[in-house]
Amino acid sequence: TVLSEKPTTFTITVTSEAGENDETVQTTLKFTYREKYPDETPLYEIVSQENLDDNDVMAIIKLLEQQAEENLGMVMIFTLVSAVQEKLNEIVDQIKTRREEEKKQKEREAEEEEKQRFHGTPVTIENFLNWKAKFDAELLEIKRKKMKEEEQAGKNKLSGKQLFEMDHNLDTSDIQFLEE
Question: Is the domain defined by 9-102 classed in CATH 3.90.226.10?
Fold first, then answer.
């Protein structure tokens, strides 16, 4: 976009190639030709940027300075814009790499937490004997409670066999019942 004719001032918007999730970084550069251009570097500034942090902006400005100095005496706007385009693509790649590293780090941390969760007390003879004594005491307590409940529920309840062995009249009770 041409902003003025004297001095010639214009803006160029440079966008990176789409990264992951169609994320792009973008910057708008403003160039102003000086009287002795191309023997003198043009004036340039970053008018706006999108998805760039301050370090990236400073890196782009340094890149523009370096490229402008290297290309003195030649028409350089295309070269400057191409260099910024490459830098933006590098930034997108760095963002992608950083996200992948963060994802891997989270996976490693989750794996470590999982290992810690399953890492218990090492079993030694002393540990086992202590556990066994507590376990046997718990089982004995459960059996005692169960026996008390049985005693209270059916005071000396006899089985069918025991009833027949104690009272022989029960042997013929079914026959007497049928006759009646």
Answer: no
